[in-house]
Amino acid sequence: MTLETHSSLEGKRLLLIIGGGIAAYKCLDLIRRVKERGMTVRTILTKGGEQFVTPLSVSGLSGEKTYTDLFSLTDEVEMGHIRLSREADLVLVAPATADMMAKMVAGIADNLATTALLATDKPVMIAPSMNSRMWEHAATQRNVKQLQKDGIHVINPTSGDLACGEVGAGRLAEVEDLVAALEGFFTPTGPLAGRHIIITAGPTYEAIDPVRYIANRSSGKQGYAIARALRELGAKVSLISGPTNLDAPKNVTVTNIESANEMLAACQNTLPADVAICVAAVADWRTSQEAAQKIKKQGGQIPALQMVENPDILKILSNDATNRPTLVVGFAAETENISNNAKAKLKRKGCDWIVANDVSTTDGQSVMGGDHNRVSLITAAGAEEWDNAHKDEVARRLAQKIEKHFT
Ligand code: PMT
Description:
By secondary structure, the chain is an alpha/beta fold.
């Protein structure tokens, strides 16, 4: 399964609280625009909001139930305000009225919207809209400042003709500006922002027949840790993963595959990239032909498995004439003569760096599947030996090296 990311909103969940202002109608278009970008939208419509748009039109566009009532027994059974406020990546209040903002500052929870806002542990954004005098009033301006201090993101209203007939600041930001603010919120920042990095991780499964396969002990922990560390530095990370029991790292595009051939195809479909890091323990061989039916025991006769070599993904990416990533990093899992074997591998495969990995048992712990790793980083500048460390720490150090390479 591949989650392709075209917009930073892809796969994100928005809780949209529609307040009681004439600009509530813009939320209908907003729902369409963010849904087009792959965002899912749940909505709370305040009593004031219901004066301007109906739950039916909101639900029709969001494709989800519109929540209105704090004390609705069925909603509290189906989805209470706590769950509603937590099962989102971001909460947006639009239009945010002066009254709603004052309640947020005071921590008042007297309806579903304000209760959800008090209960949420997620980032909150508000898009105020009101008469210009109300916007400029000292109380409102004081509240805006306090909300910003409380960590709430404010999308400032614009100036122009207001519904009340006056002219001035107080118009809800246009829908495209609201979408841009949401996209900006989810766009990564950091020293590797704008860099695309492909990481392979985990084992591959090479099918023998519909129920049996050849595998190895890689857990994917090291590759996933590297994906997280690079994402934290702002990179766009595509993780091509063999079967693991790990949760997908947040904000990383994950393509799940089984075999080496599928891993190669997924890598090639994900190019171009600035960096490729091959952490996966790819099976060197597969059976020449996967049996269509489960191979049966036949009176003590042992089936002979005919093997063929798998494509070498690291070597193929390193030698890609048109799309070679600027930096290709391999891992070398070795049990003896680690440094020399790793250097030979670097040359043979044509990558730029190799992380030489001592996969012999260390302090009674196995590197494959375990939480720790002992590696040396081999580059053109020489070999650097790193202490035995948690895989998260190895990942952070490698991510810092990559950051330095690009600065
Ligand atoms: O997953 P964990 O439990 O956290 O364990 C991490 C790890 C030990 C698997 C990892 O740190 C590691 O060492 N990965 C490389 C494992 C490996 O297959 O090494 P290798 O020496 O056989 O291969 C050398 C390099 O070529 C590797 O970058 C490998 O991904 C790549 N390769 C190998 C064969 C192949 N057909 N295609 C490849 O791309």
